[in-house]
Amino acid sequence: MTRRRAAVLLVFAKEDSQSNGFCWACEKANFRCSTARTPESALECFMEKHHDLVIIDHRHSRHFDAEALCRSIRAVNSSENTVIVAVVKRPDREEASVMPLINAGFNRRYVENANMMACYNELLQLEHGEVRAQFKLRAGNAIFTALEQSQEAIEITSEDQVIQYVNPAYESVMGYQRGELIGKEIKEVPKSEKNKPDLLETINSCIRKGKEWQGIYYAKKKNGESIQQNVKITPVIGQGGKIRHYVSINWPLNDNNKIDKSTERVQAESQTDIQSSKHKDRRKGSLDVRSTTSRGSDGSSQRRHSSMARIHSMTIEAPITKVINIINAAQESSPMPVAEALDRVLEILRTTELYSPQLGTKDEDPHTNDLVGGLMTDGLRRLSGNEYILSTKQAHHIPSHLATPLSLNDIPPRIAATMENEDSWDFDIVNLEAATMKRPLTYLGMKIFSRFGVCEFLNCPEATMRSWLQVIEANYHSSNSYHNSSHAADVLHATAYFLCKERVKQSLDPIDEVAALIAATVHDVDHPGRTNSFLCNAGSELAILYNDTAVLESHHAALAFQITTRDDKCNIFKNMERNEYRTLRQAIIDMVLATEMTKHFEHVNKFVNSINKPLAALEENGGNGDEESVKSVLTSPENRILVKRMLIKCADISNPCRPLELCIEWAGRISEEYFAQTDEEKRQGLPVVMPVFDRNTCSIPKSQISFIDYFITDMFDAWDAFADLPNLMQHLDNNFKYWKGLDDRKLHSLRPPPE
Predict the structure, then answer these.
(1) Is 483 a catalytic residue?
(2) What digits encode the pLDDT tens for the residues 117-127?
């Protein structure tokens, strides 16, 4: 779960380049931003929204007194965790003291600089520094509330074992008032004589090594009575990697609430785990506490707690189970609003579609709704008498007019000229399509595969590679307006472009690069020009063969290997060593399957969480980050898989990031393919998967805006943050504005009417 967006209040008497710079920076950083022009409206706005960050213009005293406004905001209770920044004039001569600002309640100052990136960088530093620290302090208040409500007796001491905190349950059990204990050393508090002589020494020896200790201990109450307790003491590691606090959780044992044998065994095992693992989940251990303390006295409750203890001690445990267990434990000692919020969290976590965003009502945006329905589901699976048959038994061969392989040197000059700039992002694939008479994949494939040394890696002759490219291209349907070999060539071009980016090169090995180029080439082979939902609804042979799951993607991958391995003349894998072939095959299959849209958000979120965020954290901590740490993030086997999936996904749907003319061309083609599907669904009486793609009523600009908003923006933001692609992001911005301009004029077409 992600933390909420920071809320920012900008207080500027009038709009200028400085206020505009911060407005832009807030938008880029995805912060919620409010603007106020007067101290009165600023105070009113703050009391309503309780912003995390307030930026006040301190440059012009004639408009308002910035320091007086800051003091007024600080007088509001909720401002305790708010960061307030003063924008000051650039000093003419000598530097002025910041003490007046600090005394007024400002946290820091910003010397005026209207440069947008300077404003953006300032916001990022504030957010990752002061604002985040205040979030933690605010969370600290919630934690102390939980401690105060906890039914277990809790004591916190410093590293020198001076008592710093005890909760009400501790006061109640031990008979002391908080004021009698805080500030005292533990050794000053009377001890029970019932403990073994060396027990204290054993406990101290364990916890000073940074290990948890758990066991039975006799404590002496204020009235002199000894009470037997189950105690867990956890060292808390703080600044400098040293122990800074000890947290002791105590719950009494008495005749009515004995710990059962199975729980004792679980706790003994837990203790062994603690001794042997540095990174034990502290909170998981606390789950065993629940097994020993029954809030009721009935036997069923005891049995339930005992069973839970056994479940929590299981060694085979999925990560999601661990998360749910931790939340369950936190719930038991949380205030009601927190417990209710955690209930909702658990409800979400127990669904299977953790990465699929939930759309609002259908009325909100039918274009987005239909796109998601068409691309991210497997149809309605309605039985129909009109079955759409896509035969899987048809012969896939090289047509006779393609049987003679071309040589790289034999490429006609006109075609060679169109491919001169194939290493540029602005390469025109449509020109190549025309020059090659709709056979761009073979020619572009030969050039790109030669540039990357694919034949050398596979140890295969160039003639075999040419034959393979020709047979793969022959199995794309030239009758499809979009999913034809020109789309495959376009995706191959984008893949090759991404593979040349520095970060991508640092992450991937040669075998990954070869896998990516082959996967791009075959990723839509034999595509029928219909979506998975259509095939499932029509009961096609492919849908039945692949159980309505990733139907087309499974078919593309399987057919590619069938075509390749059935004939030695085009078997590019023939000379590979067995294990290397299996590794390559697995990587190709994984990348082709990643192009299926039902897992779009899962792939993007995993990439962001496993790669982008760790890299950003490393860069924040030390410039470009520790080289070894960066390398370990980039090259771990799991992350290389995520990079390859993200790479082919971005290549597959990169049309909105192409130059405008190419973007318009591809938008027209995909729309025509969807129109044809809707026509056929109506003819055959099948469910209409994407009703907005009706050629008589569809607004192409609206469909493109929805596609960019829902699928493209976040994914390419993440990919750009990794691979550094400013030219793509500029095209995306231009293209979005183009479609928005058409839509604002209520136009449904690809282009505006001629003047």
Answers:
(1) yes
(2) 999 999 988 88
